[in-house]
Amino acid sequence: MSVEEKKLKESEGPKDKSIKLGVGAFSIELKLNYIIFYWLGIGTLLPWNMFISVGAYWVSKFATPQNSSSPVAEEEMPLACEGNATEWKMNPLQESWFGYMAVASMVPNVTFLMLNAAFGHLLKTQPRLLVSLFMVIISFIFTTVMVEVNTDSWQEAFLYVTLASVVFININAAIFQGGLLGIAGRFPPEYMGAVFGGQAIGGIFASGTNVVVLSMGATPTQSAFFCFLISVVFLLSSLAVYAVATRTDFYKHCSGEGVVQDLEKKPEDSKLLDEHQIPEVRIPIKINPIITLTKIWPYVIAVTMCFLVTLGCFPAIAVLVQSTTCDKTHEKFFVPIACFLLFNIGDYVGRFLAGLIQWPKPGKFGAFLCLFFSFARFAFLVLFLLCNVKPSGRVHTSVVFYSDAAYILIMLLFSTTNGYLGSICMISAPQLTSSGTEAQTASSIMVAMLGLGLGSGAALSNIFVKLL
Questions:
Q1: What domain range is 100 assigned to?
Q2: Across the chain, what does the average pLDDT equal?
Q3: What is the pLDDT of residues 345-397, one digit of tens each?
Q4: Of 130, 259, 377, 382, most Cβ neighbours within 10 A?
Q5: Are residues 191 and 297 in the same domain?
Q6: Do residues 333 and 264 share a domain?
Q7: For the residues of 294-349, what is the DSSP string, one character each?
């Protein structure tokens, strides 16, 4: 793009649009698009969040039908009183499900996020967003229907079918997420923040929905049905609000559609630009990713290890916890609240605090301090293994922390440090570079390594469960 074209594009920015639309109308469009991006951000990770939040449903779905003492009896789940380590035993399908689901979710998600970053510019963004979101909705309708299907006689086949649907959902969710982030990158910075904020709120929305439905007297299976149904409705609404966004002048301007249309309507302007082209000397800036990597490598390792520990422990190990309070209501709500809802709230609080405090500061000392903290988080793996997680049938470790309060405290620290440390690494790494172009390269490297941490943690989660 020439200098004149840049000036023309800038001249058709928000100030000119505000004149055409009126200041009030333009202000409304700004707020409307911000809310829509927040709304769409919730939808990007809603499939993953909703799948893991209804943990009791999966436990009952894969329970051994012949064993009446297993968790399949949703209203007669045995209580785990303090000091008693001989409660119900989970079968192999129940124990392995959350690890399998983590792999089936994170590996395709990370893979297609990277493919989208490499080749997404070759495809039109709007059709890509609409088609991928529609595919997620269709898949969630299938998941909702399967809740009402009796799968006791073909549990293993149901496992494979469900995992295949999880892979398909996360492929399309990754395409949708990558396209949305690409669009958000063309808007002012706060719109990218809206997407990430929505992703954090999405976890609270999913786990909170499960808790609310359970509090209304629903069984885990009924709760899963309503949670999946609510997800379908929410994703349908995402389609609707995205369609509204694409029709606003502010969206068209930021996405580049408005500029193209105006240039097409005014060919004399393009001719004028050609006649009065200002010659300029351009020196192409070539960024060597290897050199960039040498500048930010402590943050690269730190963010990878941070999310490896998180996905290695949550939800595969953390969800196996059993309350030691002999109260039926407490037992019913302990995992949905103390595991899923608390993790999502803590993660959001950590991200929020990172934006306020921003410590350690970017630099060599801060980078190595983050690296130290990320490796220190491996202590959470040991702490979770010592909690009242799968108390019966343990081979390599024994329960040390029977108290529910101990588990809650560990989960709160675990989730908050995940949100805080992950955000600090992502914020700080680009600031160690020397130019805007290199900062963009640094951000791409950090996103890729964050994904590697998620995928690695998911792959290792079932191995970590074997340490019990």
A1: 1-83+91-282
A2: 80
A3: 999 999 889 878 889 998 889 999 999 999 999 999 999 999 998 887 788 88
A4: 377
A5: no
A6: no
A7: HHHHHHHHHHHHHHHHHHHHTTTTGGGB---S--HHHHHHHIIIIIIIHHHHHHHH
